[in-house]
TrEMBL record:
It comes from the Bacteria. It comes from Pantoea wallisii. This is Uncharacterized protein.
């Protein structure tokens, strides 16, 4: 079983800020309330780090970092505000949680964002998977796309939909 618990270490902070700056972000902020230690079968496998920065001083972009040792950044993803989400800005990270079942072979973690569209705020999702072989994380575009325009607002709603409809 994979679980999330509050990420109380901040040893990663300078490394994640440097990584965000290398990816073109300024005024980088780490969100400790949405940063979590990830354990599988009671064994720590990494830290999921959430944050936000500004591209070109005006466009808010969120990011996810993954640290296996809590100090170094092993993986880094720009999320809302870049690529397929470049038309929206990242307002805030609303919630993070495991959405796959307790005995699921493929672990899925959902991040729900509040996004800024030109004329309104809305929710958007970013689904991560954890590789069994090396504990790396990856962006699960297929599952993320299934949730688009679903209007689900909570991790519990995403978990129910994922386990009932998307498996």
């Amino acid at each position: 079983m994979t679980t999330l618990s509050p990420g109380d270490k901040q040893e990663y902070k300078s490394a994640i800020i440097a990584q965000a700056q290398q990816n073109g972000l300024e005024r980088v902020e780490v969100n400790p309330e949405q940063t979590f230690s990830v354990t599988r079968d009671s064994k720590p496998i990494g830290m999921l780090i959430q944050g936000k920065g500004w591209a070109k001083e005006v466009h808010p972009v969120c990011f996810i970092g993954w640290s296996k040792d809590g100090k170094h950044v092993d993986q880094f993803f720009l999320t809302i505000g870049q690529d397929e989400w470049e038309a929206t800005g990242c307002h805030k990270i609303s919630s993070v949680g495991v959405i796959s079942g307790k005995s699921a072979q493929q672990v899925k973690i959902a991040v729900i964002y509040e996004v800024e569209a030109p004329d309104h705020y809305a929710s958007n999702y970013y689904i991560l998977g954890i590789k069994d072989t090396n504990d790396d994380i990856y962006y699960d575009q297929v599952t993320t796309n299934k949730f688009q325009n679903s209007y689900l607002k909570t991790i519990a709603e995403l978990r129910k939909a994922y386990n009932n409809n998307f498996n």
